[in-house]
Amino acid sequence: MTQNTSFLRNVFLYKCLFALTFWNHVRLSVEDELFTSVSNNFPEDDSNKKIKSLPLLYTNSHKSKANWVVIQNTTESLSLSEITNDNVKNLIALISNFRQGSRLRNLTLTNVSVKWNDLMEILQTVWHSSIEYFNTNNVTQLSDIESYDFDYSGTSMKALTMEKTIITDMYFTQDDLYKIFADMNIADMTIADSEMIHMLCPSSKSPFRYLNFLKNDLTDFLFQNCDNLLQLETLILQKNKFESLRKVSFMTSRMKSLRHLDMSSNLLRHDGAAAQCQWAESLAELDLSSNQLADAVFECLPVNVRKLSLRNNRIGNVPRGVAELRSLQELNLASNRLADLPGCSGFASLQFLNVEMNSILTPSADFFQSCPRVRELQAGHNPFKCSCELQAFIRLERRSGGKLFGWPAAYVCEYPEGSRGTELKDFHLSPLACNTTLLLVTALLLTLLLVAAVAFLCIYLDVPWYVRMTWQWTQTKRRARHDAPGDQGAALQFHAFVSYSERDSPWVKNELIPNLEKGEGCVQLCQHERNFIPGKSIVENIINCIEKSYKSIFVLSPNFVQSEWCHYELYFAHHKLFSENSDSLILILLEPIPPYLIPARYHKLKALMAKRTYVEWPKERSKRALFWANLRAAISINLPKADENMYEETD
């Protein structure tokens, strides 16, 4: 009995193994007959594996019914392409086999060219199958659009995606087309890149939670006054032809559950305060990037928005006190025209700010003080002007604790030309160059020191006195030329002008004048007591006497250096020495002069005594004859006869 039982068990196992092997062989051979191409990732040995995704190229087959049953039992995702009027009926028959409860969940049809009714029948068949996600790509409708009584009941569908759908019928009733899709009782629907110009509001309360109408031709008329999208949470209208931000706001005002709205890459504008806006209170994420919005956009924004993108618009400033977006946490203002970082007076909860690729030369250093909750600032790729003002922003980065996103690579000097390409972290200026107060104080101190030094030198060298004397010399010369324009050739009247201190006048009168003016080769001397012209100033008389004398004799002594008028006479004589390039000075040292007695302003006298030879008055009488002979020789000159007559008349 035991052996028989064991034998029967082995026979039964053998038959089961044979049946399983035979079924696998049949399944593979049948599938090869039905489809001409299988994807590269299709398993070579699938006897121990389950097929979950099967992308295939459809062809006709007389054994189609048996093969479809096999596919129904072995796949969850199916992709078919090249659907035409010739094989559309077979496709519909295939889909009808995937009844609710089958494993197939995803169906994708690519390159479909069928009539309107066939397209609707495909959609209707899918609607009542096990398929939950239906995708079409590159669909062309060939015939006229007609009314179709679509049955929305009893569906497993969750999402419909249609991309690149072409409607060839140019004249049709809009309800016949748009009502089919508007009234679908599914959660997600995408109709993208299909040149769609309109979409109807659902005729009853819609279960739509996600609508994506990317890259179509929709306008401001979409969903106006629509009350049946109460469950809609996400609406994507990117790359359409919307123009009025105000109308967009009113479109959303009746969508009580809307949280995410994408209006990027449209033609949106906003006129300003005169146009009031009304957004859905539930709207938390709004994308308005790549439009034509300016500063006035901040007057038309949803008050409860948390994430806002205004990237690539025409915004030059964020007006203060206009927008009170207290829930805003993330703001993207990249690729606009901002000249500085915006403040956070209206954005109390702001945590992330993007201002990359604007026109910010010198960002405000107090940004994080006005925006204490900001955790990340993206401010790179701006044309930074590396100057003293930027130093504060660089120090801000060091104190921010890594809040500057992209630092340091994205933060590079653009101006001035010499610093272009330098990363901000490598840009440094001295504290003196960047501290205006310190720079002004330093410049003021240097100026005061310079003024003090110049004043000291002027006082020490008696510069004002020399300036005054030069002015008087110039004025006297001008008057002399004006009073006697034809008398320039008869200027010399004296052999020498004698300059001395009044305290040395006894020696001049008792020794100098008698010995030079009497005897052989008498010398005609000009003395102030007898040759100054009454009515003229002392300075003018000094200048005239020096001008009319061939030589100027200076009787030097300690008394001479104490006389102001002797200083005048020495200055004018020295001036003539250089102006006429003549050797007209004769120095007589009557008494030795200690250097410490010579005032600082007598630097010319010091220079003359150091460089020129002077005649010293001898104390020994035996040497005085030689003294007078040398002095006569020094001033010896033959005056013109006319000059002698003039002297005699003057005398």
Task: List key phrases describing it.
651 residues, alpha/beta, Leucine-rich repeat, LRR (right-handed beta-alpha superhelix), Rossmann fold, 15-stranded mixed β-sheet, five-stranded parallel β-sheet, 19 helices, 22 strands, 16% strand, rod-shaped, disordered N terminus, disordered C terminus, repeat
Question: How would you describe what is shown here?
Answer:
- The chain is an alpha/beta fold and 651 residues long.
- Among the domains are: 316-455, Ribonuclease Inhibitor (Leucine-rich repeat, LRR (right-handed beta-alpha superhelix), Alpha-Beta Horseshoe); 494-634, Toll/interleukin-1 receptor homology (TIR) domain (Rossmann fold).
- Helices cover 35% and strands 16% of the residues.
- The protein is built from 19 helices and 22 strands.
- The radius of gyration is 56 Å and the shape is rod-shaped.
- Mean pLDDT is 80; it is low at 1-51, 61-70, 486-490 and 642-651.
Low-confidence regions? 1-51, 61-70, 486-490, 642-651
| Arrangement of strands in the largest sheet | 1-2-3-4-5-6-7-8-9-10-11-12-13-14-15
Query: Given this structure, which CATH class of the domain at 494-634 is correct?
Result: Alpha Beta
Q: Can you count the beta strands?
A: 22
Taking the sheet with the most strands, its summary is:
15 strands, mixed
Structural class: alpha/beta
What is the global morphology? rod-shaped
The CATH architecture of the domain at 494-634: 3-Layer(aba) Sandwich
The gyration radius over C-alpha positions equals 56 Å
Distance between the termini: 184 Å
Beta content comes to: 15-25%
